[in-house]
Amino acid sequence: MAPPRILLCGDVLGRLNQLFKRVTSVNKSAGPFDALLCVGQFFPDSSDLLEEFTDYIEGRSDIPLPTYFTGDYGAGALKVLSAATRDPANLGFKMEGLRIRLSVVYLSGRHSTSSQQFGTYSQDDVDALRALAEEPGIVDFSLTGHTNEWPSGVTNGAVTSDLPLGVFDSYGSSSTVSELVAEIKPRYHVAATKGVFFAREPYTNVEAVHITRFLGLAPVGNKDKQKFLHAISPTPASIMAASEIGMKTTNTTLFPFSSVEKATHTTDGAPKRSSDTASDSQYWRYDTSQKRQKHGDSDGNKLCFKYLSSGSCERGEKCHFQHNEGARDQYLSGVCFDFLIKGKCERGPDCAFKHGAEEEGNSFPSRRPRSGNANSERSRDCWFCLSSPSLESHLITSIGEHYYCALAKGPLVEDHVLVIPIEHIPTTLLSPPECETELIRFQNSLKMYFKNQGKEAVFFEWVFKRGSHANLQAIPILPSRVSAIQDIFNLAAQKLGFKFMVIKNDDSSEGRKMLQMKFDRKCSLFYVELPGGTILYHLVDENEKFPTQFGREVLAGLLNKADRADWRNCKLSKEEEEKTVGNFKNRFKEYNPNP
């Protein structure tokens, strides 16, 4: 199932004509999208826009996309929502026909001790969200919106040159929100209210392997024309492998909320309950089974996510899930997380991790003939095997005897090419001499083609020791950027705490031979071949967290295309891909080693 494609919006303020005009345009040019999620104030500031707003509510104007909002306050909110809630079927988000599989939490309105139905949240609401931190699993989205929106301290450690004016103001910030996101640790935190757009660098979380991305959105129709609409296509954490969840980008910063004061009262004066009391009561209160059993009686056969991933769980004996040391040992040895938790893995034979102890010791799948063996089983659903039904063959541009070329899905730049072995092997460095010769021929052809386009070629490969089907990526770079490539890779390596080893050789084929001799099959490896023949490489330790998209992320930064660092944000329709492939084939015709 493809990841959901979602549009995020800041404070709408009742300006639905302007919002939906923009949504229609974006959906036509970059869609289709599955849903629109709005944070902050959705209803108008005054009654002036009520007629426009009511036209959509009562069906006189068309809504172009399933739209969901959290801001239940503003002019007309009480009347509209009170009428809607008279029908019990209208309570909550309406998700019919939309299966996004994302875990979403939200806090909206201003804090109040009254029983006002709309526009406020209570301490019970805060405690309900805090209880989520005690549950297994990862929250994908946290949405916040109203006067207490942005978490206090979110700009700590951020690149100051990227900070818009006004973000340092205390208005629109809350230590309550800071503490909530610090406990819940969402993968994405989307907020409004500040009146500006701000996409913070990802930051690490305390006692969690995944990172959090904070996104502040401007209001619709703001006079400074700041961004109020943002597109995203996140893979739900529930179906991600542990290695994917734990990956960090090269610009990841430290946790920004370490200085948040752990006071006994919130900034708005509301007393905060004892952590133990709140978590225990809420743990029972929000359980779907209505009543929690004693430890081991309910969910006793399920593994604790926190213990499995970190080796500890703050609930100790009170935890309702197993703290299984044997399962954690398997997890650390490379057994698939989904396989341990669920007993099955949706990726099947294409999963990069082991599905049980029987695979122990197999650092790489064997390079045996394809017929009638495990390699054939693994390649059945592989994206890159020519015999696989999952192969998107329309992206292929040239096929040789041992290798083929294809345009990248979700390309970083135009002419982003993959050089792929026909045999189902985990790295091109395992190719025998006759296959290596053909690989070099493909590389040289691409170099000449890029040179004719006024560009230079950069090749890189991520070799995961439990990987599946290899692919060597080729990216065209303008000559003016070539001198900075090695420096930016070294800087990115420094941020991750390692230093590249260097192989200098004018002949790229000889450089690859030297790299093959240094390659240890028991380790993962990243390497990049620079214009001129220099190769940078890094052998990745067993317990080292290394971003699978490292090469692409670094080059995206070099090319000022940070928004294209994730290939899933760059996907084209099949029709667009077919047209792109046709154009590439025409340009590449005279350089193609396999016409």
From TrEMBL:
Task: Please cite one Gene Ontology biological process associated with this protein.
Answer: mRNA splicing, via spliceosome
- Zn-finger region bounds: C3H1-type: 298-326, 330-358
Compositional bias (Basic and acidic residues): 264-275
Please tell me one Gene Ontology term that the record gives under cellular component: post-mRNA release spliceosomal complex
Give the source species. Rhododendron griersonianum
Protein name (Swiss-Prot/TrEMBL): C3H1-type domain-containing protein
Q: What molecular functions are annotated in GO for this chain?
A: RNA lariat debranching enzyme activator activity; zinc ion binding
Would I find Metal-binding among this entry's keywords? yes
The protein's UniProt keywords, in alphabetical order, are: Metal-binding, Zinc, Zinc-finger
